[in-house]
Q: What sequence folds into this?
């Protein structure tokens, strides 16, 4: 009965538009979509350009004579390196996967008591978290280095993974979502005998799925691109532990002759985060539209 009533209300609220208005809206959205896709299309086109087309003036947006020589040259460069490309790929995935998983779990576990339990000083702690969002990563790089050095984790994978666990953005995002969960739902679970851990894992986490899926996107993107500067370059000295971003940045040392392989490397670095964003975005939209709850 309630479902039929909601369907009837949706039909009544539906706005009738004429065909020209629908065409105009579709055209406007298509233009906006093309504008947002232009950087990605240009990067793909640049990666497929031969060297002579890269330095044309005015530059061409679409490649005229597409070629895969840039990718071949890129893999040829790493084939002659004493550290294989597969090692850099493993390092990048290992750091990004563990850093993202740990950040999501720890941020969620820390956000739950701040959002649903009346802790003494909880508001003050959350105010510090909000304040920390104002600081750029360059400001905290020296304290992070000193902390990692004191723990004896320099020149290890954990020098990149542990700082990712403590990113304040995840705690802020998860707390804001958990506050929207009705307290009556949690109280009903406690009456049924559920413990706090069971409530957290079986009730709270499925409801806030949009939050931690979004957090996965941001965390993975940040860890995937680490290495060329900042923590990746200062925390890890061994070449066998460096990530792809650092390895690809070394191609620039070859001058403009390696502009083609560098364009191919930039495309490879962008494909994985974009693919994860596309796959996760569909889940986020679906979850937001189907898991809403009201008091």
A:
């Amino acid at each position: 009965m309630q479902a039929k009533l909601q369907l009837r209300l949706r039909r009544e609220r539906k706005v009738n538009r004429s065909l020209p208005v629908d065409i105009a809206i579709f055209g406007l959205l298509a233009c906006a979509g093309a504008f947002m896709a232009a950087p990605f299309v240009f990067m793909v086109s640049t990666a497929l350009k031969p060297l002579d087309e890269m330095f044309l003036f005015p530059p061409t947006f679409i490649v005229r004579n597409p070629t895969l020589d840039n990718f071949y040259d890129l893999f040829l460069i790493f084939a002659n390196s004493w550290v294989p490309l597969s090692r850099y790929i493993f390092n990048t995935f290992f750091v990004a996967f563990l850093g993202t998983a740990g950040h999501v779990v720890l941020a969620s576990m820390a956000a739950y008591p701040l959002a649903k339990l009346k802790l003494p000083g909880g508001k003050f702690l959350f105010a510090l978290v909000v304040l920390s969002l104002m600081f750029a990563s360059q400001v905290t790089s020296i304290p992070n280095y000193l902390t990692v050095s004191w723990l004896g984790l320099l020149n290890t994978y954990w020098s990149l993974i542990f700082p990712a666990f403590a990113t304040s953005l995840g705690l802020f995002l998860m707390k804001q979502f958990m506050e929207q969960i009705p307290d009556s739902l949690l109280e009903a679970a406690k009456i049924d005998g559920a413990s706090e851990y069971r409530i957290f894992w079986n009730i709270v986490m499925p409801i806030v799925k949009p939050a931690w899926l979004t957090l996965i996107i941001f965390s993975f993107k940040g860890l995937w691109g680490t290495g060329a500067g900042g923590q990746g370059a200062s925390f890890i000295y061994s070449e066998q532990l460096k990530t792809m971003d650092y390895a690809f940045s070394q191609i620039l040392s070859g001058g403009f002759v390696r502009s083609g392989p560098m364009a191919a490397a930039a495309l490879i670095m962008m494909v994985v985060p974009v693919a994860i964003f596309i796959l996760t975005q569909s889940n986020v939209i679906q979850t937001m539209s189907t898991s809403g709850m009201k008091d």
The chain has two domains: 15-67, 77-290. The mean pLDDT is 80. The chain is about 70% helix and 0% strand.
